[in-house]
Amino acid sequence: MQKRPRYGILGGTFDPPHLGHLALAQEVYARLALDRVWFMPAGDPPHKRGRIINAAARRLAMVERAVAPDPRFGVLTLELERAGPSYTADTLRALRALWGAEAHLCLILGWDMLAYLPQWHRPEAVIAQADQIAAVHRIGAETPPGEMERLTARLPGIAAKLVILPAPRFEISGTLLRERVASGLPVRYLVPDAVEEYIQTEGLYLPPARAPHVEPTRGG
After folding, report:
1. What's the pLDDT tens digit per position in 100-123?
2. For residue 203, which phi and psi values (nearest 5 degrees)?
C-alpha cells in the first residue's frame, strides 16, 4: 500500500526569506514527520494591501535560493501564477486538485497568524481543506488566558485539526531586515548567504539615493 504523502505548506510574502522561516519549517517537518515542507510565496497578499513589496520574481528568486540546499524543502509558485488576492482557502482547494485527496496537507502558521485566522477570507474553508493546522508557539511563551476557547468558539472544527508546537523563534522579521539594509547594517547570519548575496546584487531595500542601477528582474 502506497504511503500517504505528508506535506507542510508555509506561505508568506518572504520579502526577504530569513533563518526564522527555515527554522520554523525544520521544526514542523521534524515534529510532525512530514515528507516535505513547501514554501509558497504570496502573489498578492491581501494582508499587505497598501504596502510596497518586491516584485514576485524577486521574492521567488530569494525563496529558491533560501531552500535550495535543503531537500526537505521545496517551492510552490501556485499563488504567484494565480491572478487576484492570494487567499489560502483558494490555494488549499487548488492543492487538493493537484495532489488529490490522499495527500495530507498541514498548514503551518505562526502564533500571530493563528490568532488572526477568524478574520481570513473564508476561514471555514481553510479548516475544511487542511488535514492539520500547525501553530508554532515560541518556547516558554504562554497562551493568553481564554484565547484557545475564543478561537474554537469562532472557528468550529478547528480543535480537531489544530496542533500547537513549541519551537525556537528567531527575533527576525522582514520589516527588521529591510530596515537594517536601508540603514547600512549587515544581515549576515540573519538570512541565508545566498539571499544576502541576492539582496546586495539587486540593490534591494536601499533608499533610492543609495541603490545601484540594476536591470529590473522580469516577471511579477
Report:
1. 999 999 999 988 888 889 999 999
2. 65, 35
Domain 6-202 belongs to what architecture?
Answer: 3-Layer(aba) Sandwich (3.40)
Query: Distance between the two ends of the chain, CA-based, in angstroms?
Result: 42
Q: How far apart are CA 106 and CA 109, in angstroms?
A: 10
Distance separating alpha carbons of residues 170 and 184, to the nearest angstrom: 21
The pLDDT tens digits of the residues spanning 140-171 come to 556 666 778 888 889 989 999 999 998 777 78
Burial (CB < 10 A; 0-12, 13-18, 19+), residue 85, is middle
Distance of CA 109 to the CA centre of its chain: 8
* Domain boundaries, given as residue ranges, for the chain: 6-202
